[in-house]
Amino acid sequence: MAPSSVDSVSPTSPVLEAALAQVFTGLTRAGSELELLTACGPLFRALAPSGVELLDDGGGRLARWAPEGRAPLDAGPALDAQELRWRQGPVYVADVATDPRCDAARGALQAAGVAATAIVPLRCDVLDVVGAVRLDFAEPRQFGADERDALVVIANGLATFLVARRHLLRQREALRALERERTTLHTILDHLPVGVFLAEAGTGKVLLVNHRGVEMLGRGVDPNARTDNYQEVYQCMRVGSDEVMPAEDLPLVQTLTSGEPSQGAMDILRPGGDRISIEVSAAPLRDGDGAMFAAVVAFSDVTERNRVEAERTAYRDELIRAQAQALAERSTPLVPLGDGVVAMPIVGTLDRERADQIVEVLLAGCAARKARVAILDVTGVPHADTAVAGALLRAAAAVRLLGVEPILTGIRPDVARALVALHVDLKGLVTLSTLQDGIFHATGQRRH
């Protein structure tokens, strides 16, 4: 069958001109490959194809269009677009029945009702082919110059908008990926057991405070916070002091200023009036070129840890003091005063073990120094009970056996009352108020 030119459109056809105008208006609104083809509907209706396919750069179908009320001709794989070399330029088959390029697929094409076809590459520039548009016709036809020009124009328009759409899709996917990353980052940050604080380099503007950070600080992102007033906005105090920490001492400000990591500690006065202690570590954030664009701070609440450490320190100091006191109490020196007089200051509590120690030291000292008088000074004994009374009496009796006169000094009123209440018999034992009185007594006795 000879090709027909009945359906050709004149270059000056107002129908074609109007169709092209509508096409480009519709292309600007298209949101998918099918909508791109649908936008070209006015031109397709002017050319009257039985079906139109939008192909990707590998020849695969992206979308398909047909006139209202008709199913598109489905030549599908029957016509190998690659064999027609459409990448090198538009391919126009006026009559499938006679064109040798269709020899291999003629039967399938005719069975599908395709009598003529046109394949025009979609170029976004001279060399880059991004796909093709294919029009199938149920009748053979001559493709006039005007139709060919119109198809090339529309193909270029399709290419432009197809590339733009692909670029837009890539941008949207990139934005979705960024949003996923942002959501992931925020989720991670909000589940960290430490506070995180992010500030912009240059301005010092607070960009982010995570959930734990808000809990600790009692405040979140403050739009008025800057490097020169962080300490006022977030009530940063020196540790254990009511002095506001100067801005230049804040680790965040130091990092924003120097670009180097910084660490420190401070107290935070929270809005409710309570106070916490935090440890802070700041570090710079840099872009691919090494320029610092922000600084991040991680901080931990160490209030409870500091309290425990303070209690531990206080306990240790108390233990050391008690041990020192115990050592002092256990150490009961015998002090020689000359001329056969010795004195033993007794400090601390007395028990059976220490009483035995006192007697042992006292006897050994008196024998070694040939003492006549031994003064037992109990000024440092805090209280009296049967153990104290027994210890004093044993010590006095022991030195008497050596011929040494015992003198008891430093008995306070409360100790005296306790000894009386215990019915302690101190007969034969010289008792004086002070150690000095005892020394005078011992010296005076020697002089007579």
Measured as a percent range, the helix fraction is 40-55%
**Annotated CATH homologous superfamily of the largest domain:** GAF domain
Determine the mean pLDDT: 83
The ordered string of helix (H) and strand (E) elements is HHHEEEHEEHEEHHEHEEEHEEHEHEHEH
Percent of sequence in beta strands: 15-25%
Domain STAS: 331-442
Keywords: Phosphoprotein
Pfam families: PAS, STAS
Domain PAC: 262-314
Label this structure with key terms:
single chain, 448 residues, alpha+beta, Beta-Lactamase, Transcription Regulator spoIIAA, six-stranded antiparallel beta sheet, five-stranded antiparallel beta sheet, 13 helices, 16 strands, 41% helix, rod-shaped
Question: Summary?
Answer:
InterPro entries: Bact_StressResp_Reg, GAF-like_dom_sf, PAS, PAS-assoc_C, PAS-like_dom_sf, PAS_fold, STAS_dom, STAS_dom_sf. The chain has 448 residues and is an alpha+beta fold.
Molecular structure report:
There is one protein chain. By secondary structure, the chain is of the alpha+beta class. It has three domains: 14-169, GAF domain (Beta-Lactamase, 2-Layer Sandwich); 195-306, 2-Layer Sandwich (Beta-Lactamase), CATH 3.30.450; 331-447, Transcription Regulator spoIIAA, CATH 3.30.750. The chain is 41% helix and 22% strand. The protein has 13 helices and 16 strands. It has helices spanning 14-27, 33-39, 41-47, 106-111, 145-190, 211-217, 230-233, 251-258, 303-330, 352-369, 386-401, 413-421, 435-447; strands at residues 51-56, 61-65, 91-93, 116-123, 129-137, 195-200, 206-209, 236-237, 262-269, 275-286, 292-301, 335-338, 341-347, 373-380, 405-409, 430-432. The strands form three sheets. The protein has a six-stranded antiparallel sheet, with helices on both faces. A five-stranded antiparallel sheet has the order 2-1-5-4-3. Strands 12-13-14-15-16 form a five-stranded mixed sheet, sandwiched between helices. Strand 6 and strand 7 form a beta hairpin. Helix 1 (14-27) runs antiparallel to helix 2 and helix 1 packs parallel to helix 5. The radius of gyration is 53 Å and the shape is rod-shaped. The N and C termini lie far apart (166 Å). Mean pLDDT is 83; it is low at 1-12. This is Anti-anti-sigma regulatory factor (Antagonist of anti-sigma factor). Residues 331-442 form the STAS domain. InterPro entries: Bact_StressResp_Reg, GAF-like_dom_sf, PAS, PAS-assoc_C, PAS-like_dom_sf, PAS_fold, STAS_dom, STAS_dom_sf.
